[in-house]
Design a protein that fits this description.
235 residues; mainly beta; Jelly Rolls; five-stranded antiparallel sheet; 1 helix
Length: 235
């Protein structure tokens, strides 16, 4: 049986590291024996308006000779993310929050899931429970998304991990939306390399105070893969 680690080369594109409004570039890897590469970013917390960009850099050698950007992808906080939180703080009647294009509206006393209306007649925690009744409703809720509540902080995730992304926005200051985690990737065909360039690295830039990690996968190898790791099963 052909296993995936016999077909592709897994590398550390960027070790898990905290970044605070800055950037970092990982080691340069040769692409000579591989036709393609895939860089996958896992990003941590991002407050509203913050962004994180994954970028494939190309160079003429392992020492980053003539390094330049080849392609990139950018995550914007609270837009198509893997997990986020919504904190309620004295929400007022008529205020709204939009989750995956569905608008949920606060009402002074009545929760009505069929029109995505939630009561704010209690404490912030109680109001969050009412909002979750609407979000999690089997018919009128947000498809593929599940929410939980802890002390007025709602956490939204994909019901089946990785199958859905989440976007949540509100123009009202009583809702605070924060990204917990997000993913992005750049896929590269070797033919996209500029003439004379042979090595690639992954650069991550963020305007947030966050944590990032990148896996670099080189695949479509011209020869057998020699995968070396500190531990493996099967060995």
């Amino acid at each position: 049986m052909q296993r995936i680690y016999e077909d592709v080369k897994f590398d550390i594109g960027q070790v898990s590291i905290p970044l605070d409004n800055t950037n970092i570039t990982g080691k340069y890897h040769p692409l000579a024996e591989h036709r393609c590469a895939l860089a996958i970013l896992s990003g941590g917390a991002m407050a509203k308006t913050k962004i994180t960009t994954i970028e494939i850099m190309e160079a003429k050698n392992a020492a980053a000779g003539s390094a330049q950007s080849l392609k990139s992808a950018t995550i914007t906080s609270n837009i198509k993310v893997a997990e986020l939180t919504i904190t309620l703080a004295t929400v007022l009647a008529g205020e709204t929050i939009t989750i995956n294009s569905l608008v949920f509206t606060a009402h002074g006393t009545v929760t009505d899931e069929s029109i995505r209306q939630f009561s704010i007649s209690g404490t912030d925690t109680a109001d969050a429970v009412e909002l979750l009744k609407c979000v999690n409703h089997a018919v009128y809720g947000v498809p593929g998304i599940t929410g939980t509540n802890a002390a007025a902080v709602i956490t939204l995730v994909s019901t089946i991990p990785g199958e859905q992304v989440i976007t949540a926005v509100s123009t009202d200051a009583t809702f605070t939306v924060v990204t917990v985690s997000a993913q992005a990737y750049c896929d590269l065909d070797g033919l996209e390399l500029t003439a004379g360039f042979s090595h690639i690295a992954v650069k991550v830039t963020t305007t947030a105070t966050s944590n990032v990690a990148v896996v670099l996968i080189r695949y479509s190898s011209r020869k057998a893969i020699a995968q070396k790791m500190g531990a493996s099963n099967p060995a």
